Amino acid sequence: MINAVYRLVAPGMIDVACTEPNLKTSVILRPEYLSICKADQRYYLGNRSREALKEKLPMALIHECVARVVFDPTGHFKKGELVVPVPNTPTEDDDIIAENYRRSSHFCSSGYDGFLRDYIDISYDRLVRVPEGLDLRIASFTELISVAVHAVSRFEKFSHGRKNSIGVWGDGNVGFITALILRALYPDSKLYIFGTVYEKLGYFSFADGTFHVDHIPENLTIDHGFECVGGEASRFAIAQIIDIINPEGSIGLMGVSESFIGVNTRMVLEKGLRLFGSSRSGVADFERTMQILEDNPQIAEYLENLIGNVVEIHSIPDIHSAFSQDISRNFGKTVLKWMK
Amino acid sequence: MVFAAVFAGGVGSRMGNSDTPKQYLELGSRPIIIHTIEKFFINEKIDEIIVLCPKPWVAHTRSLIAKFIPEGKKISVVQGGDSRNGTLENAIKFIEENYETDENTVIVTHDAVRPFLTHRMIEENVEAALEYGACDTVVPATDTIVESENGSIISCIPDRSKMYQGQTPQSFRLKELERVLASLTEEEKAILTDACKIFSIKNKDVFLVKGEVFNIKITYPYDLKVAQTLLKGKDDND
Given CB atoms, is A72 within the 8 Å cutoff of chain B? Predict the structure, then answer.
């Protein structure tokens, strides 16, 4: 079968290419809703190094998606079932290193085609079922939620048992979702949010406190912290976390930056802090995400606030329109309803 | 029920020196006709598929289907007619002889040599056929269309903004199609080779479904080269 794939060939330029999915081995999905991630936007705008663009383009963007099973030759899924495809594809087994950290793994929309395609062809073991009743617009960004779940899972592994207070730096989508997951899993901990935009901080109504980074009370301390800021500003966020955190606390680093970010290692040493990186996610994280969403229906209610523009996609110009609408969003997700 | 009728009646006279009908030429890893059938095979709106091909190629087509296409949907291979209308009539005859049909039965007709059709085109064809009775898949004309009565002098140049290039699928409510075909005289049948044109001449509305520029018809060696280029992506990408 010939499949149409909509690839970014150069910043701002999308063209159709064709691939040949194998109907005898791959599960065939039809995208229902997709969601634009900041990483997609960086490729679309050309805000990556020339080397990265040269190496990775052309490729189809978007790695956040909910889709319907069209055909499954392996018999694992029924026709019409709703699933979320996992964009990470491991190419080797490893008992120690998680699939999303193996250098040999492939990731859709980072050097390999993302989900902007008429049909997604994928191995059955890269699919996770969508719980009944979950809003498909929310399900479209399951991948982003799973990234937060993955970071919190690592936090569980690395952090000490005293979790009286946890701080989240960043008032954007990643901060919002990470805070929601922490709220659900640590209902007895004090959850504090640190950001720069009062309006966005106002959305974190489930937290115990929200603070502008320039007006943090002097006596406030936290046991652990998450940096969900990214970019150049992550430098200031990390510095602030190190200042405020109690000794032996853990700091989860989740924000991506194109440049090197300096860290106050003196205080890291003096306080005996643990800094851990967290990036992407794997099948286990997707499965845990679905379980958390099922067990905590209030999370989906808050996540509804993240649904920004929903753009119907009938043509390539519609894809451009979705990306340009997304540029002007400072909070929330741009969701694509796939009708192409 | 919705039937897909894949027209594979061509005998390859236009495809360079190859004796193989163009729909059986390889494109990527499999024959063109298989790519086309696969698109209907995985589409949920299509209940059954009928492939119409020249008599000497019926057995070969069956073998190809058995080799490449997994179990899951009934695919019948039937002999086509001498002309496009003849092939269409054979498709209708096969459906009427083998199935219960009613006013909601739809036939989606498609050229085997257009393997680039998309999910959306099939969906919109079925919906439009049910709603309007007939539809044609088209793209806006990019070249100026020039009409000449005698082949040497321009007789008219129609307004390009109103011109479209016809592709396939073309889809119909089966019963409506049968009635329209039955109303044709033998002379009309000989000159009216396009089912949508027949509808149009009989003052029946034919809805336009948006095609795709890349939904090319592989007719000439040049087209096959274009198709092969469309299939070439980044080598390590798939």
Answer: no
Residue B221 structural domain? 2-138+166-231
What is the number of domains present in chain B?
1
Q: Out of B38, B118, B234, whose CB is closest to A118?
A: B118
Q: A338 with A315: CB under 8 angstroms? A: no
Residue A57: which residues within 8 A CB-CB, separation 6 or more? A7, A8, A9, A10, A43
- How many helices (H) and strands (E) in chain B? 8, 9
B227 pLDDT exceeds 70? Answer: yes
Q: Cα(A274)–Cα(A271) distance, rounded to whole angstroms?
A: 9
In the block, tokens 């969900």 appear at A228
Nearest residue, CB atoms, B119 vs list A19, A73, A118: A118
Closest-CA residue to A3 (of A119, A155, A146, A135)? A119
CA A6, CA B230: separation in Å to the nearest integer? 12
Q: Give the model's pLDDT for residue B16.
A: 56
- pTM (two decimals): 0.91
CATH of the domain at B225: 3.90.550.10
What residue type is assigned to position B212 of the chain?
E
Sort strands B106-111 and B30-31 into parallel, antiparallel or unpaired.
unpaired
The complex scores an ipTM of 0.86
Amino acid present at B200: S
Q: Report chain B's C-alpha Rg in angstroms.
A: 18
Top pLDDT among A231 and B237 is at A231
Residue A222 gets which letter from DSSP? B
- Which of B33, B34, B38 to mutate against chain A (most A CBs within 10 Å)? B38
Distance CA A105, CA B91 (A): 49
CB proximity list for A36: less than 8 A, separation 6 or greater: A61, A62, A64, A322, A323, A326, A333, A334, A336
Q: Which two tokens stand for residue B66?
A: 């058995």
Using the Cβ of A16 and the Cβ atoms of chain B, whether some distance falls under 8 Å is answered with yes
C-alpha–C-alpha distance, residues A224 and A25, integer Å: 45
Structural domains of chain A, ranges and CATH numbers in brackets: 3-145+280-338 (3.90.180.10), 147-277 (3.40.50.720)
Among A206, A42, A36, smallest CA distance to A137 is for A36
Cβ A159 vs Cβ A274: under 8 Å: yes
Of B119, B230, B237, the CB nearest to A119: B119
Mean pLDDT by 10 residues, chain A (340 residues): 96 95 94 96 93 94 98 96 97 96 93 95 97 96 98 97 98 97 98 97 97 96 97 96 98 94 97 98 98 96 95 96 93 96
Q: How many helices (H) and strands (E) does chain A have?
A: 11, 19
B235 band by pLDDT with thresholds 50, 70 and 90: very low
Q: Using an 8 Å CB-CB cutoff, list residues of chain B that contact chain A.
A: 27-30, 35, 38-39, 41-44, 69-70, 72, 115-116, 118-120, 212, 214, 230-231, 233-234, 237-238
| Eight-state DSSP code of residue A252 | E
Helix B32-41 and helix B58-68, axial crossing angle in degrees, nearest 10: 60
Confidence tier at B238 by pLDDT (50, 70, 90): very low
